[in-house]
Amino acid sequence: MRLVRLLRVYAALRAAGPGVTRSLSSDSGSRGVPGQVDFYARFSPSPLSMKQFLDFGSVNACEKTSFMFLRQELPVRLANIMKEISLLPDNLLRTPSVQLVQSWYIQSLQELLDFKDKSAEDAKAIYEPIRTRLQVSSLCSMACKMIFTDTVIRIRNRHNDVIPTMAQGVIEYKESFGVDPVTSQNVQYFLDRFYMSRISIRMLLNQHSLLFGGKGKGSPSHRKHIGSINPNCNVVEVIKDGYENARRLCDLYYINSPELELGELNAKSPGQPIQVVYVPSHLYHMVFELFKNAMRATMEHHADKGVYPPIQVYVTLGNEDLTVKMSDRGGGVPLRKIDRLFNYMYSTAPRPRVETSRAVPLAGFGYGLPISRLYAQYFQGDLKLYSLEGYGTDAVIYIKVIMPILNCNET
Hints:
It holds the Pfam family BCDHK_Adom3. One of its GO terms (cellular component) is pyruvate dehydrogenase complex. The chain is α+β, with helices and mostly antiparallel strands. It is built from 13 helices and 7 strands.
């Protein structure tokens, strides 16, 4: 069913633009890659739950095991999404931004394939002469472990700007060729899959680099983290952090900002702080984007009055769900426009000026809400909007509850 759906979508996309879909092999720097993409794309990525991430990272995390898994899993995930990228319409593939994104994926796959025939012990043989001459076995062992980890970190950093760069490519395509409703729907389907793939790949890269990269292990604020996962994530503190940073931006732009009214109810453990097992950066991204939207709507809807109603946030923890509800009085939107707010080709803000192909700002691309929803859905949660036109909007984040890990390893 998945293959049939993909073929239908991309057949429609191809019909939207003239020409034959560009092949990866047309790039001189990607010789040998198409065959590897075809091979690894035959396999489905291995789904990983929060519990699996915790089980691996919290109990005797083994760098060798991580290496053996990632050297197979990462090429599979990269190849699957590269296959889908190659099926995009020719005119979209020709945009400089999409070509840049494609080149990043090609380079990353090539670097990972260097490890496909190597065991975790191969690196030690490379450093054995040094070990013999210098008699510094601990330093040599450290160097051995860093070979693959350095590659993982390099790939992670290379892909930092994938979201805004792909966004710019879609804008270039839309401005040059226009987009009809069918094409828009199919591009939406592709981008949801593409960005969810990026989130999942980045999660793997972050877990390995943070567990075995050696940096940040001594940081008091992250000492209890399992990679990027906080076993005791204080939800209210993350929300306050997101509010303060969004408020600074609002103050810079509007010279004022709405206040925050924050309430919480721990129905599972009354009287206790609301803490769950989660990735703080994911939660922060969601609430930060929602605060920016709520502040902008509030400031513009009440600009004539000069009095700005507060943004109300209520957090509840139940047996199954952690729920964060953010309510603003920014005027709301009609029901027929709710779905558009999650469309990558729709934004109520002016398009940002793009000075370079890298470090493109997200503001104005309309990607805040759809990407935030993907973050929520990644660990079986969701993000929904409920609007009262003329009054305001409620944004609700649902997160699947995994209770904090007590007495977790602090080393």
